[in-house]
Amino acid sequence: EAALRLSGIEKGYLRGTPGEVIVLRGADLEVAPGEAVALVAPSGAGKSTLLHIAGLLDTPDAGEVVIGGEAMQSRSDRRRTIARRREVGFIYQFHHLLPEFTALENIVLPQLANGVAPKAAGERARALLARVGLAARADHRPAALSGGEQQRVAFCRALANAPRLLLADEPTGNLDPDTSERVFAVLMELVRETGLAALIATHNLDLAARMDRTVRLDHGRVVEAA
Ligand code: ADP
Ligand code: ADP
């Protein structure tokens, strides 16, 4: 069973106006549990659009999004929001941690929103921080952490609710090469050890080469890179 299956996804903006742009034209993609797939394409090709559709933040004009075997297009908005919170974690180039909360609290909050009890949420947050080497930083606010540390906290937050699927948009794009390397290594360990499925948009071909597969967006379709 694929963690994520996109089939026949079509998506355009400003349909029926002179500014119309058709971004996806029948995109198909599967990501298996424990698999990391790199998504490589030039700016404007539709990577963010594809990630937002895969993560149930946006709906396609046509096609089906299946997450963990559940076909999402026919579900209610409420059901899709619940599924997004439970099944999908997002990481962006800029971490968007909440500045007034500690690292630990940033990882606890999404769990509370998902109905986890505070004690269990705190324990899981500590375990995640330890997993990425930040046990000693639990009580620091983001401003007191380095860029690489902040991004590792953002990973922990994305994984707080043990999602099936991790979607990342240039997760190391804002980091220097050494820090990027360390953050990427942690990400791949998590994929290998937890069976997480990851779809990671990147311009970094070295990182892409270390994932299981690379796909490109070509005229609105997903193609396997050679
Ligand atoms: P990428 O992430 O690969 O840079 P995007 O998915 O952000 O690409 O955008 C793909 C195309 O869709 C671009 O031409 C962009 O200008 C256009 N686009 C994206 N979002 C919108 C929107 N909300 N309204 C109109 N056009 C959009
Ligand atoms: P909401 O505020 O819609 O209830 P959640 O708090 O459930 O969203 O957010 C779940 C994840 O989705 C978070 O990681 C958040 O970063 C991401 N997210 C929510 N809305 C957007 C958006 N409009 N664009 C990008 N990411 C979003």
Automatic annotation (TrEMBL):
Keywords: ATP-binding, Lipoprotein, Nucleotide-binding, Transport. SMART domains: AAA. It comes from the Bacteria. Pfam families: ABC_tran. The keyword Oxidoreductase does not apply. One of its GO terms (cellular component) is plasma membrane. Coiled coil: none annotated. Residues 4-225 form the ABC transporter domain. Belongs to the ABC transporter superfamily. This is Lipoprotein-releasing system ATP-binding protein. It comes from Meinhardsimonia xiamenensis.
